[in-house]
Amino acid sequence: MVVGGIYLGAFTPTEAAAVGTIFSLVVTFGIYKTLKPKDMPGILRDTITTTSMIFAIMIGATLFGFVLTILNVPQAVTELVAGMEGNRWIVFIAINILLLFLGCILESISIILLPCQSCIPSF
Questions:
Q1: Taking the domains of the chain in order of start, what are their residue ranges?
Q2: Whether the predicted model's global pTM rises above the 0.70 cut
């Protein structure tokens, strides 16, 4: 229903998420009866906790990207890589080692957001 509604143009992906949520609530409350209304506060509390953690990661990545931009780190790294005399495979391996290191200490969302936020111009 969700994917079909998007492909038919009945609703946008955001609206499809809302339709899917309402449909799943109707199915679990009405058809399968696996949830009771008293279960909703706990479910909503878990949802708020998870969403808050994701927003905290996004805020931290934005602030870190802003600091990197102020300190001109992206330009320095670009100049460093562009000025390297050597094989392009060395740069490729260095980037992979950096991503491996970051993967040990950060979540994937943070790693994805860091390069994106550091490219935003400062105001």
A1: 1-35, 40-123
A2: no
